[in-house]
Amino acid sequence: MQLDIYRDQALEKLLIVERGTDINQLTGIKQGFLKGLDRPNQIDSDFDKLPTGIKPDEVLQAVNQHGFFASTLVTHVREIDPSN
Predict the structure, then answer these.
(1) Does 78 score more than 90 pLDDT?
(2) What CATH number did the domain enclosing 8 receive?
(3) What per-residue confidence (pLDDT) applies to 65?
(4) Measured between alpha carbons, how far is 46 from 3 in angstroms, rounded to an integer?
(5) What digits encode the pLDDT tens for the residues 8-62?
(6) Residue 42's beta-bridge partner residues?
(7) How far apart are alpha carbons 61 and 68 in whole angstroms?
(8) What is the rounded radius of gyration, in angstroms, for the C-alpha atoms of the chain?
(9) Strand partners, 61
(10) What is the DSSP string of the chain?
(11) What's the whole-model pTM score?
(12) β-pairing, 41-44 with 69-72?
């Protein structure tokens, strides 16, 4: 399957759709999620690799069922004092 991968500049949001899909016409996704997504990277799911940590089977299932796979990255930073 040919896919388009959209990312935001901070790499916090990820949207994967079938190649050529107009993301502004997707149903079931909040329009605010689409804000800041950049030009897509095009891949072939059979030959190219998805971003690290993304499971191909989950992506393909979501794209087939919903028309898209969407994910957000949440990071936590904890400051430690090396003198203790």
Answers:
(1) no
(2) 3.10.510.20
(3) 95
(4) 10
(5) 988 899 999 999 999 999 998 887 999 999 888 888 877 678 888 888 899 999 9
(6) 4
(7) 9
(8) 15
(9) none
(10) -EEEEEEBTTS-EEEEEETT--GGG-SSS-HHHHTTBPSPEEEETTTSPPSTT--HHHHHHHHHHHS-EEEE---------TT-
(11) 0.82
(12) unpaired
Tokens linked to 21: 């899909």
**Residue whose structure tokens are 């997504």:** 37
Domain for residue 83, yes or no?
Answer: no
Residue 35 Cα distances to 42, 48, 52, 65, angstroms: 19, 26, 23, 23
Q: How many domains does the chain have?
A: 1
Which two structure tokens, joined as six digits, stand for 52? 């690290």
The Cα 23–Cα 42 span in angstroms is 14
End-to-end CA distance of the chain: 53
